[in-house]
Amino acid sequence: MAPHISKVAVIGLGTMGAGIVEVFAKAGHEVYAVDGTPELAERGKGFVTTSLDRAVSKGKLAEDERNATLDRITFTAELADLADADLVLEAVPERMEIKHAIFTALDDIVRADAVLASNTSSLSLTEIAAGTAHPARVVGMHFFNPAPVLALVEVIRTVLVDPEVVDAVRELALNLGKKPVVVGDRAGFVANALLIPYLARAIALYQTGAVSRTDLDNAGRVGIGLPMGPLTLCDLVGLDVVKEVCEVMYDATKRPSDASPSLLKQLVLAGRLGRKTGQGFYDYSADAGADEGESTGGMTTAAAVVGKGEIAELLATSLAQAGVGVTRIADPDADVAGLAGSPLVVLVGDAAEGCASCGGDGAECGCGATESPHDWFTGVAGVLDERSVVLTADEASEFALTGVLPADVAVLPLRLHRPTKGGQVAEFGIPLQATAEQVATVRDTLEAAGFVPIAGPARPGLVVDALLFQHLNDAVAMVDAGYATPEDIDTAMTAGCGYPVGLFAILDELGADVVADGLVEQASLDPSIVPSPLLLEHAAADKPFLAR
Ligand code: CAA
């Protein structure tokens, strides 16, 4: 018979456990909230009370509801109190021996039909279940941090579990107002298997020293449009948890990008676990100084914007509004001799449909459209020397300059990303020729023009697409492996990680061909990047992943 779940218990009152207690109690369940000692139970009560008080002060919870919620919770350090619980969920540290010891102790306490649930984010649920006397009643119930806010609950089934138990837990999650996704027992389940490698790649990039933590966070938050940047999110999740999931993922996949970056290991060893210890990638202590400032070069006073189309217009207008003296050249026949010595020259090639020179399909000027060098840009290049910093806003303009400019001229690839809630990213790559002063000037100029600047090595994908495209590819590979559907993955990432839209919605908007081509370019630097076969098939068939 399907278990009826009314009275619940949560063991372990850290960040996750306390949040889960709050979720159950708010939904009307009687809850035992358990920790190892009376002091820890009292600390847990403090977490829950503080959170409820915050909700009251924000006007989101009435005072009497707050009191009624607290009245439904019994804080205790005694497992023996849990004899009448219908479900016991553990949220204790991620060590198999602790989980087994708790479930073994519960075997002698709870009823034979009570459900034993684990909030594990990194251990094998099958191994947890197999170590108990009644594996058929053991199930995963994985919440996301902050549990009171995020709607996803991954319900993990094993080959040992009674399907009625899975159904009952799914139903329970629905009654809590959550969005359950039922999945099999695989490293990282759905959300962590996608999120944590993305976070690990960001940390790996940060530890090279080539990208600042502010730029990395802006790449995730503003560039991709996620609720938080990757390093800030690591600090929220806890660096110990991120590292544990990395290790489990690496164990399962042996992909270099899943391995725990050495900086992550060092921070965990140093006890800098993020917000919960007051320090992680950022310092949360009251006396923490301001964030690292990027070096300032002072914005440029003059710039030339050469090219057609919306991006050229946007750049020219934004720079002019920032007080830069802009020379705008939108006519391929215009005299460009005056650009000699111009401190900043921006070339925009293929933003307009077709060729930058003829504006069409190449038939008119015989340029062979966007992939050919353009007379227009090579003409511009002919008057430039090392006094100018050249920004190329797309591949067509980069291509047009190849081999044309003297080797000591700094040519910086520039990419404007679509605006998101946090603003519009203008990211640029730093070639070896660029001096620190030039980089700082470009950064300050883009910032003054209203963009969120991001700087990193001048390599395929720069920062934003290097993070995003591999994240998308991981999601496609998960579908290809038959573990989850695109719809389930989008639910997991929106409901579990607060993504404004799912990964497949982003992928369909960008186009599978664009992402596949980008990954092929990125693979030229890192052979471990392999576009998923399913991605290539969708690219070839020009077929979206989600039904429209
Ligand atoms: N408890 C209760 N409510 C909270 C909260 C908490 N700990 N933290 C934030 N909130 C509430 C705020 O009160 C606020 O509510 P209102 O809008 O009603 O006022 C709302 O959440 C938004 O908070 P803020 O305005 O302070 O800040 P924000 O808009 O930046 O949102 C956030 C904060 C909800 C954390 C959001 O940034 C977010 O969703 N970030 C992504 C978090 C994420 O990815 N979590 C999953 C990590 S992976 C995991 O947890 C699984 C694992 O196993 C590792």
Care to describe what's here?
The two termini are 40 Å apart. This protein is elongated. The protein has 548 residues and is of the alpha/beta class. The strands form 2 sheets. The chain has an 8-stranded mixed sheet, with helices on both faces. The chain has a 7-stranded mixed sheet with strand order 10-9-11-12-13-14-15, sandwiched between helices. Helix 9 crosses helix 10 and helix 19 packs across helix 20. About 1% of the residues have low confidence. The structure holds acetoacetyl-coenzyme A. The site of acetoacetyl-coenzyme A has 20 residues, from helix 7, helix 9 and helix 17.
Helix-strand blueprint:
Blueprint: E1 8-11, H1 15-26, E2 31-34, H2 38-57, H3 63-71, E3 73-76, E4 87-90, H4 96-107, E5 115-118, H5 125-130, E6 138-142, E7 152-157, H6 163-175, E8 179-184, H7 191-207, H8 213-224, H9 230-237, H10 239-253, H11 262-269, E9 302-307, H12 310-321, E10 325-329, E11 344-348, H13 375-383, E12 389-392, H14 395-401, E13 410-416, E14 425-430, H15 436-448, E15 452-457, H16 464-480, H17 486-497, H18 503-510, H19 512-523, H20 533-541
Helix pairs in contact: 1-2, 7-9, 7-10, 7-16, 9-10, 10-11, 16-18, 16-19, 19-20
The protein binds acetoacetyl-coenzyme A.
Offer a quick outline of the entry.
With 548 residues, this protein is of the alpha/beta class. The protein has helices at residues 15-26, 38-57, 63-71, 96-107, 125-130, 163-175, 191-207, 213-224, 230-237, 239-253, 262-269, 310-321, 375-383, 395-401, 436-448, 464-480, 486-497, 503-510, 512-523, 533-541; strands at 8-11, 31-34, 73-76, 87-90, 115-118, 138-142, 152-157, 179-184, 302-307, 325-329, 344-348, 389-392, 410-416, 425-430, 452-457.
